[in-house]
Write a structure and sequence with these properties.
This protein has about 60 residues and is mostly helical. It has 2 helices and no strands.
């Protein structure tokens, strides 16, 4: 018997944040260039930053 596809909605929380108008414009521009949503772009940037940040502050 073949495996069945069971779609799942990833768990996400809605948050609010303040960001400068200039930074938001840059985010929107970059996201549009690669045809993804602002939300997805910000999520990927945060994930990349967390995975690549130094363990110590120095």
């Amino acid at each position: 018997m073949a495996a069945k596809f069971i779609p799942k909605k990833p768990e996400k929380e809605v948050i609010s944040m303040r960001i400068s108008s200039e930074l938001l414009a840059t985010i929107d521009e970059k996201a549009a260039k690669i045809d993804i949503s602002r939300n997805e772009f910000i999520n990927q940037c945060i994930r990349f930053a967390l995975e690549n940040m130094a363990d110590s502050p120095c």
